[in-house]
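Hypothesis: this fold can be encoded by more than one sequence.
Test: take the structure tokens below, design a sequence, compare later.
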């Protein structure tokens, strides 16, 4: 760059010198000489720089070769060391790993045997489950077909009613009777209430429409069948209300209990006919599920318990009155005995006085005459009166006890 600058300056000076050639000839010669000197110096500097670059390249090449040789030797030495160390470490790692793999292999084989046995057992259980499901399905179909029969359905409802009544703790022919006849009908069961009351219960099982609803998978058809089911239940309410059991049995409440033995069946009817319960109550029919009937019968049993308690209290009061009357009569008789005891004591004392005045002197004279050697001891008179007042507190403090009467075992 300096050379180019010098050349540019020289060219400019040359151009300027041409312009003033005549005026600056000597100056031009001196400038040319100076430029030649600078060019020579720049050439030497360039040669020195080139020499330095060449030396640097050779030194770099030698250093690269030396470093490569050192790195190769260090790599070989480190590779041998690491290889030996790796072999030793790998030996310590592989041996336990080999043992663990052997143990694991044995465990896996044992697990496979166990899994095969469990799988065989599971297959047997699934097979049994399938057979049980098939039997259950057949039984369900048979039960459904049986429940579609009015006779079987009615008998099933009566059996469920009896079970619920017995579950409430009632006894046949004591707390309830079945198939009691009335003037216009015969309820399935009557429950006896306190004071001669009677609660009639009739079992109704309208299940045809409900079973059809449960068998279909079409939502529209199911809603239609459930609506028919609610209508059928309302019809049973109407029929039962027309029997008017409260007029046929004396002391019966002004309603009759309609027992529906299936909670789901009754719930579906209430869900599809919101006015069903209110309409039944207006017709004096109380629709009851098994749970509600148990609660109702428990209330009846509690009423019987309270009635027995009241009756026992009445009997206890009557017995107490009779006992008081008898105690009063006994006291009068006992007072009479006391008065007669006083008379007896007085007669006894008079008899002793007569003995001492009339018989004792004669007996002493006979003993003095030698007819007897032993003296007759006169009996002592009785000084206690049967009418003396008795201090009950003092008697209790002294441990006094009542004198047992004749025939008293106490």
């Amino acid at each position: 760059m300096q050379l180019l600058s010098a050349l540019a300056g020289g060219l400019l000076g040359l151009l300027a010198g041409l312009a003033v050639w005549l005026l600056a000839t000597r100056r031009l010669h001196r400038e040319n000489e100076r430029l030649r000197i600078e060019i020579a110096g720049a050439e030497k500097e360039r040669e020195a720089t080139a020499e330095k670059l060449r030396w640097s390249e050779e030194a770099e090449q030698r250093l690269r070769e030396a470093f490569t040789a050192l790195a190769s030797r260090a790599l070989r030495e480190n590779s041998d060391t690491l290889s030996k160390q790796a072999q030793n470490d790998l030996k310590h790692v592989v041996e336990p790993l080999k043992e663990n793999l052997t143990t694991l292999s044995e465990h896996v084989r044992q697990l496979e045997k166990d899994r095969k046995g469990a799988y065989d057992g599971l297959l047997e259980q699934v097979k049994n489950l399938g057979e049980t499901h098939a039997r259950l399905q057949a039984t369900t179909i048979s039960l459904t077909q049986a429940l579609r029969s009015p006779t079987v359905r009615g008998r099933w409802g009566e059996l469920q009613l009896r079970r619920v009544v017995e579950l409430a703790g009632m006894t046949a022919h004591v707390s309830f009777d079945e198939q009691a006849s009335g003037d216009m009908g015969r309820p399935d069961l009557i429950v006896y209430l306190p004071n001669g009351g009677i609660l009639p219960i009739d079992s109704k099982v309208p299940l045809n429409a409900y079973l059809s609803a449960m068998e279909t998978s079409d939502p529209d058809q199911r809603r239609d069948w459930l609506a028919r089911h609610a209508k059928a239940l309302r019809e049973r309410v109407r029929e039962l209300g027309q029997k008017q059991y409260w007029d046929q049995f004396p002391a019966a409440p002004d309603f009759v209990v309609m027992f529906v033995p299936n909670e789901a069946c009754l719930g579906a009817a209430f869900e599809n006919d919101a006015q069903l319960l209110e309409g039944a109550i207006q017709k004096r029919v109380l629709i009851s599920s098994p749970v509600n009937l148990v609660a109702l019968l428990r209330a009846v049993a509690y009423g019987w318990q309270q009635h027995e308690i009241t009756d026992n209290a009445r009997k206890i009061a009557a017995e107490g009155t009779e006992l008081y009357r008898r105690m009063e009569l006994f006291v009068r008789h006992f007072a009479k005995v006391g008065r007669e005891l006083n008379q007896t004591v007085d007669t006894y004392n008079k008899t002793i006085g007569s003995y001492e005045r009339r018989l004792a002197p004669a007996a002493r004279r006979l003993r003095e005459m030698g007819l007897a050697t032993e003296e007759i001891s006169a009996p002592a008179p009785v000084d206690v009166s049967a009418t003396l007042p008795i201090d009950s507190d003092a008697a209790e403090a002294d441990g006094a006890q009542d004198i047992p009467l004749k025939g008293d075992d106490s």
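Residues 153-289 form a domain with the Trna Endonuclease; Chain: A, domain 1 fold (CATH 3.40.1350). Residues 162 and 189 are 8 Å apart (CA to CA).
Hypothesis status: open.
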